[in-house]
From TrEMBL:
InterPro entries: APOBEC/CMP_deaminase_Zn-bd, CMP_dCMP_dom, Cytidine_deaminase-like, MafB19-deam, tRNA_aden_deaminase. Zn(2+) binds at H96, C126, C129. This is tRNA-specific adenosine deaminase. Its EC number is 3.5.4.33. Its cofactor is Zn(2+). Binds 1 zinc ion per subunit. It catalyses: adenosine(34) in tRNA + H2O + H(+) = inosine(34) in tRNA + NH4(+). Pfam families: MafB19-deam. The gene is tadA. Keywords: Hydrolase, Metal-binding, tRNA processing, Zinc. Residues 13-156 form the CMP/dCMP-type deaminase domain.
Length: 199
């Protein structure tokens, strides 16, 4: 049964490393005028398909204060896709950050099943994205900020609860709140700026 998972110190550092990558993607979305939601999809272990350039690794490790001791090069080698919200840019209402990385990872692996993968996303997934994650067979979802209006893991709905997910052919573990303050601040700043610009 899928449940919110517990965290040990090493896993917490790893989760924060990947969430910082997702936050960098969210910042890119904001720069394009998109709602700042970013996502990163990672393998359980390093794979040949994983592609992270030295520049991307340097960008991420510059954000992290523990780059010399945390094994970040090994973690970065597990990244299979990163992306951000793009409905406005792509004229596509389904172009959420989660969908973008699922599509990219499926191309990289040449398989729609992303068994053993973990998704890091800066905002709790909506119902559409939870459905896509179920179909993609991801193992785990980690999000930063909760989404009280449309979050489908514990806020507006709880689709991974046993009663709700009984008809799903796959369930995944999930955890919320990783770097939630950073993600929430980015979202708040974006919407405050948008309100000011529409006055």
């Amino acid at each position: 049964m899928a449940q919110p998972i517990s965290n040990c110190q090493d896993l917490q550092r790893e989760d924060e490393f990947f969430m910082r990558m997702a936050l960098a993607q969210a910042a890119e979305a904001a720069a394009l005028g998109e709602v700042p939601v970013g996502a990163v999809l990672v393998f359980a272990t390093a794979k040949a398909e994983a592609q992270v350039s030295e520049a991307e690794l340097a960008e991420t490790t510059a954000i992290s204060e523990a780059s010399q001791i945390s094994g970040e090069a090994e973690w970065a080698a597990r990244v299979m896709a990163r992306g951000h919200n793009g409905p406005i840019t792509h004229h596509d209402p389904t172009a959420h950050a989660e969908i973008a990385v699922i599509r990219e990872a499926a191309k990289v692996t040449r398989n729609y099943r992303l068994d053993g993968a973990t998704l890091y996303v800066t905002l709790e997934p909506c119902t559409m994205c939870v459905g896509a994650l179920v179909h993609a067979r991801v193992q785990r979802v980690v999000f930063a900020a909760s989404e009280p209006k449309a979050g489908a893991l514990h806020s507006a709905r709880a689709l991974m609860d046993a009663e709700q997910s009984g008809y799903f052919n796959h369930r995944f573990d999930w955890q919320g709140g990783v770097l939630k303050d950073e993600a929430s601040a980015m979202l708040s700043a974006f919407f405050q700026q948008r309100r000011r610009s529409h006055r």
